[in-house]
Design brief:
The mean pLDDT is 96. This protein is of the alpha/beta class. It has a 9-stranded mixed beta sheet. The chain has a 6-stranded parallel beta sheet with strand order 19-18-17-20-21-22, sandwiched between helices. It has a 3-stranded antiparallel beta sheet with strand order 12-14-13.
Amino acid sequence: MTDNGMTMEAEAEMLRQDILSKLAYQVGARAERASPRDWFLAATLATRDRIVDRWRTSADEVVAQGHKQVCYLSMEFLIGRLLSDALGNMGLTEPMRLALDGLGVDLEAVFAQEPDAALGNGGLGRLAACFMESMASIGIPATGYGIRYENGLFRQLIQDGRQLEVPEDWLSLGNPWEFERSSLTYDIGFGGTVTQDDGGRMVWHPGEVVRAIAYDTPVVGWRGHWVNTLRLWSARATDPLHLDAFNSGDHIGAQISRVKAEAISRVLYPGDESPAGQELRLRQEYFFASASLQDLIRRHLRLHGDLLTLPEKFSVQLNDTHPAIGVAELMRLLVDVHGMDWDVAWEISRATFSYTNHTLMPEALESWAVPMMERMLPRNMQIIYLINARHLEQARAGGAGDALLSAVSLIDEQHGRRVRMGHLAFVGSHKINGVSALHTALMKTTVFAELDRVCPGRITNKTNGITFRRWLMRANAPLTKLIVDTIGPQVLDDTDRLADLAAYARDAAFQEAFAAQRRTAKEALAKMVRERTGVVLDPAALFDVQIKRIHEYKRQLLNILHTVALYNSMRAQPTGNWVPRAKIFAGKAAPSYHQAKLIIRLANDVAKVINHDPTVRNLLRVAFIPNYNVTAAESIIPAADLSEQISTAGLEASGTGNMKLALNGALTIGTLDGANIEISERVGLENIFIFGLKASEAGPLRRDGYDARAALAASDELRGVLDAIASGVFSPEEPDRYRGLVEGLLAHDNFLVTADFDSYVASQRQVAQRWGRPAEWWRSAVLNTANVGWFSSDRTIREYADEIWDLPVR
């Protein structure tokens, strides 16, 4: 029986008829000539119809019961492909497979037709997607608000080892999941002047107005009991064509306003190295924050009538600093538009907002030049000045001196007068959360130390989580089946039941079955790598995986140095008892992040040399998988044996890739950073490989200055690696290609790559030794899967609901 109480065959037959109807009347195709894309559209539309009924039921219950709702504001929602997720949560995967089989169509081929939604970049956006799914799964009414990027971040190509960026055209063929709400639009102003009317109210007269149009996508929860909404804004010009200019022959100039307006929702994270790029980023952030808050107020007034009750009926979560301008914007809407007293509006606003911080690096906390803010958002800037004045008055009254006042001011006067958006989010929120225990503790002593002194008690921890439906049940169906067959189907609804798997960690037959499903996943990944890169991987090798955004603090460079060290050792000792190993990298570098792009090129150059060197006898292979996204992750994670989580201690807020990989049985090699600490506590230190400096040691070294040349003098192995890279061993056609990278590392090793090198290499030797003892390896792998149930995003969301949003979980 299916979740609908029907037999599988009856459900499949209904789906089959609906698919044929959609194919004929909405896709406009005949079954005998339908393309794979046609079948995808028909299957998606048939699935969507079943979701819409539950979507309406969920919305009707919110209205009838007056439930409090969450508004989750995020620049990214990395939702990936939706069809497999929706079918799984609705309990329709097997009925759909049967329905399509009867039509001579393969379900996996249908899944492959769906492009990844290009709405995010990395962990921030994937966390938002997991949270949206978890809120639907546990029945929390929520709307995710963001931007409908037409071209996303970029599609990554690797050409001659270098990253090239091309537009990601995921919407070129349309998106069958979304509903355009053409009647749901809001005007977003920029520039202009501010005056005061006869009643003393401030009136903003924008010099430019852009229209925000809503596109809604349903987010279906587990078992299909609740469906929430992802509402994304698309930017349109109020006047798409200046007809007079067009008719007079200025065909390009007549469309300038349209191009400028629509650029807002064109690309995720446009380069901000130029003033124009910085302006576009600020326009994006204000655009989606203002549209979302205008929508929130409209919804609240329609349902509840009185804005005084806003915090009782809505909680707004700011996902990082990108939507922080919303603090000033909500005050503008309450005071200027709805005539509310400032003090009352401030209490309502602060009680409504909460803020999630995702970084401990001050340079990553956004700030905007005051002159640009005053020019683009003159009224918001006035409001920020007033918020700051009152904030500093309260701090001074509490005994703060000039130095402390300067540190907690929303305006940084030391670096060219800039608005500190993290400070604005902090001051304007009733709760501020970190995303792992270490991160939250460090927030209180680093980036928000002074604000915590003047606004005590606001910082709390909410360790990140992941949705197991996506990252185990869908990404790794064979492992899921093994788990269900072993400990029962209750684990699908209660992730705490994963702990029952620990009893089988030493069971030889279970270890064999566990290893067999990993081998199947590795064979599939090896096929994908060969098709995308030409690199041939041996599925029997240790798959050593680092998949994440390319950034110096995430230390892909350290992993590459170890790869070279291993290569050097294999050549020096060709008869050694070497463990076959495949080093697998994937991730994108920001287009303007030249050092990160150079690291990508180095990884590819190292791969080219090692993969073509017969002396290593294929015992070491290196692959860089281009265009890393959610779908790629779903293939890589089930196949990973070793999970590289090697950031400089104290700099990774949490990580969620570490959770996904551990859930699928990969062993972690990492520093005591972010959620690695909590993972180590739950899986046991004997089942994880920890190396390197702790945050308490790394922080002072980075602050006081670290001499990398001392590490070089103490390590012959490190010296040999850096000499090989600097001398052109991996770039013979351009011997000096990486000399600057090596010299820069030795002069300014800000992320302590050389400091942790020897410890990392020693830990990697322990990895090889453990891999050589299969019973020990697979025992640790099983215990990783068994002991990470706590890292479910369902748990994280329940904590948000209970401790931040004051929202009962039904």
